[in-house]
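ok trying this again, last paste got cut off
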Amino acid sequence: MSDPVITYKETISGLLDAIAGEREAVSRAACAMGESIMRGQVIHVIGPGGHSNMAVEEMFSRAGGFACINAILDPGTNLSHGGFRSMRVERTPGYAIPVLDSYRVGATEGEVLLIINAYGVNCMTIDCALEARRRGVTSIAITSRSFADRLPKDHPSRHPTGANLYESVDIFIDNHLPYGDAILTLEGCEQNVGPTSTFCNCFAANYLVMETCRYLVSKGYTPPILRSGNLPGGDAFNQRLVDQYAGKAILLF
């Protein structure tokens, strides 16, 4: 019998390899984000529901990450207020609209909204994509095509239209999430263990950050990247970026 930890590690490694192969989509997304950053705008990032919020937190106030992230961390879908509560909220049609309003998404022309949702089917997720289009905001998705395609159209977690996120945005980056998320079958355990969605979402998000930095450098623009506050001079370095984006992001460090 194989060691489940080794199987888990190897499976995760294979998923990351697959995401690393999404070069064309990531390059297109990096170009859109880079152009927005050079206009002095923030990048809006939302993880509509449950653990997808963790990918937003990964991008926000992060050493090695962009200072210009408008992290949309709405309490309604935050797991700290209850997991099943979060699931009910993310399935509520129209809930995304006042959330995007509160974070000023679409306040200026040419903005970008990055939507990170592992499954890409719930109401809040699809409404974010539809609202982005209505507001003239470029939408980028990190989500799974294969999961969305396999999930029945009448599943209660879906948007009433049955739409899939990957088909509803301007640019789609496949996170290659396996169907069911958890991947390991253990004897005596009724359900699979070993979830994968956070690895997939966060790796894809950091890949996009790195490629956006490469794009900015190619244009002669210094990427607004944060330094660890635990390094000498880190606080002073980051404060200059805080001052640069003060008033543009709702949450700022």
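PB: full thing came through this time. Residues 4-244 form a domain with the Rossmann fold fold (CATH 3.40.50.10490).
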